[in-house]
Amino acid sequence: MSPLSHTFRFKYSWRTYQKRFLEGFETHKNDNHLHVVAPPGSGKTVLGLEMIGQISKKTLVLAPTLTIRNQWNERMLECFVKDESAVETSFDIKNPETLTFSTYQSLHSFYKNNLESSDAELLAFFEAANIETIVLDEAHHLKNEWWKPLFSLKQLPECVLISLTATPPYDSENSEIAKYFELCGPIDMEIGVPELVKEGNLCPHQDYIYFSEPSKAQIQDIITYREQLLQFVLDLQKNEELQQFITQHPFYSATETSLEEIFSQPELYSAMLIYLNSCGKIIPPEKTNVLGITTKKITYPSFNYHWVEALLQPLLVTERETYVDNESLLSSIEKDLRKIGGFDKKRVNLEGEKKLYRSLSQSPNKLKSIVEIVNIESDAMQRNLRMVILSDYIRSEFLSINEASKLSEINKLGVIPIFQYLRLQLSEIPAVQESKIAVLTGSLVVVHQELVSELVKLLSEADFNQTPLPDTNFTVITPTTQGKKEIVSTITQLFEAGNIEILIGTKSLLGEGWDAPAINTLILASFVGSFVMSNQMRGRAIRVFPTNPFKVANIWHIACLDPTHEQGGVDVALLLRRFDAFCGVSLEGTPYIENGSDRFGILDADLQADSLNKKMKSLALHREAVSKRWNQAITEGAVLVRELKIEYSSKKRTVKPKKLLYQDVVKFAFLELVALVLITIPELFVKNIGAFLTRGMLYFFYAIASGFAFVFIPKLWKAIRLYLKFGRKDRQLRNIATSVVQAMCQKKIITTPETQLKIRIETFEKGAISCYLLGATVQEELQFVTYLDEIIQTIDNPRYLIVQSNWLRKQLGYSNYYAIPGIFAEHKKDANLFLYYWRKHNGKKATMLFTRNRNGRKTLLKARFQHFNDQTTVASKKALIWK
């Protein structure tokens, strides 16, 4: 008899996506892998339990935390069985039962300590226990040391592996992504947030950003730091000893005999030339010939921080031992770098991301932002407010702050600093009652004294101890061993009931696995930039709340602007990266649903904190409008697709992108020619009428023709040059995408019939273009976008290179270089396969170069230098959008 045949039945109705998945369950199970991707709150645990029931074999469930592990048992009792005795369960991985709930850490510890990391013993143990189903919950959490035992478990006879996750590790290295899919198998179903909002399984929600500015002291530190960096670069350019060192370096003084070394360090050689050019030195043509550049006029890139790092990193670190005779010079440069914080842990870093980020991410002014957000939301929501504030650290040392006069001492972000700052600023927040604030972390709980009586109703007094927080109306709750299991659920109950309206906690406890659907406002006071963790934290707020069917959640992010940086600085950059982890509805304008930060329009706006915050506040007060925007955007699409967005911009100034340049070339060239015909020819006729009368028809014809050629040919030549350089980028992208798809189909990377596939190209007002593939599986979509991105991205160090040109373009110096994607570059036959489809759609004149020989490295060097010399940059990024 099957272990779960008569005791395991779902008690409720299935959601639409769950029902759809279960209808195709047997098909999905054919490869012994079941892989579901769905956002937090979508019911993955319940679906996982149903899969276990349908397979009906002894099962090991692995989760990343004890909280999530326990939820599996809770959901089973709530939704599938009559009582605890219906199914034999275990929480001890060493003593498996019909259902064993454990953690990845426990498996690793058992594998390492009890089985001495023996794959054979691990396999024998679980085979003897008759485990035939493995469940990997939140599979994106897998750490390096956990992979090995999991791959071993896959070898169990007739084993079925179930993988559930909200966020596959798409932001990881390609090798990590490949390993993830090797373990978990292809995605059987990916459910997006829009579908779940449409079905009413997740609530409408919106993200907002509240900006602060550094203190005057911080701003001065940033300005001083940047001035020091600038002065350091200027000093380098005036350093005659360094100039002499570079000109005597073998790369420069003996270029022809150093070609192999130059080709192995192309960026160093380029940096040397760029440095000498910035010092006013004339670079002989034979030096640039090495780069494959034969044009007489060369515009060198500026000697910016990138090139300073490219020059100094080999000299000061990787090749330092080679330059013993110049140690005095190098030591002096290193000393100057260290003084300004530009040299740390054997790395030259003039951008100073870490130094500036530490300063901005921990800016005390973020505490003021939190108070202002609390004021906005409490005034709007009144007693309906259910706010959670998540931070990275507890910082219990701030418990001793107890006077408003000591407010300035709270100078770091953390659970207790936020609690104390908020408590001491309550006079500025009239809608918040002091008794409604509480703290909940794994090791520290703080509640108002008025709440202790409510705690006693839910917990025995033997379950916790209480210690008054001196000079306040709050109490520190310390659960006993017996009470530890209940304290989180008890505080959660009080929060949902409204006894607590503002709950401050750590992302580690409340950021994942914690379930409180009453939350309607979330503040992420965390500076985590992790793709995965960001999605998990945000997922706490977007669950539906049965008692409030009209729930709309506001999710606040905080950032500190760097006023010396045109795009806001490193804190803003890391925050904007966070948005890549999830989809949301656009903030303004025509509603659309997309991941990433473009939907906020932040970088298109003037980055002034006051004006941005005023706009965010105004929008956040209209929750009903958020619900309408979701409904409107959802009706405009049917499915989430992965696309590649490509933007063109000038390195010097804002210019129209290439697609628009092409249109302008055609339009203005045509208008110029019309103008020539209508204006110039009559003018030439009038001016030469005398010649006709005095010298005859032939002379008159030559005069008209020469005048026409003098004016017309330069205009035509200009139009031709522009067209040859810029071309039709939308058409070119389609051709490249078609080459990629057909090569993937031929190599069996895409198994979906090619007749079902459709490539879509879209253009946008500001000139960006995008490309996506319809009809493919989730994994095929992901691979297509990844390979296309490899081609579009700046040339780095590909194994094979495609050179796209023709005779005329070569004469004008307009060769284009493209990397053959890595998946086709491992073997020459695959590279040739890709080249075949490339020529089929992009021109037969394309050639392929192997970059690991001398000629190939020279071309590769030219391609990279051409990119840095080009005044137009191409930026691509992957996006997920509802179409």
From TrEMBL:
Record key words, sorted: ATP-binding, Helicase, Hydrolase, Membrane, Nucleotide-binding, Transmembrane, Transmembrane helix
Superkingdom of source: Bacteria
Gene3D superfamilies, alphabetized: P-loop containing nucleotide triphosphate hydrolases
GO molecular-function term, one example from the UniProt record: hydrolase activity
Transmembrane residue ranges: 514-533, 660-679, 699-724
CDD domains the UniProt entry points to: SF2_C
Gene Ontology CC: one annotated term: cytosol
Helicase ATP-binding domain ranges (all copies): 25-186
Keyword Transmembrane included in the entry's annotation: yes
PANTHER family from the UniProt entry: ATP-DEPENDENT HELICASE IRC3-RELATED, TYPE I RESTRICTION ENZYME ECOKI R PROTEIN
Protein name, as recorded: Helicase conserved C-terminal domain-containing protein
Species of the source: Ulvibacter litoralis
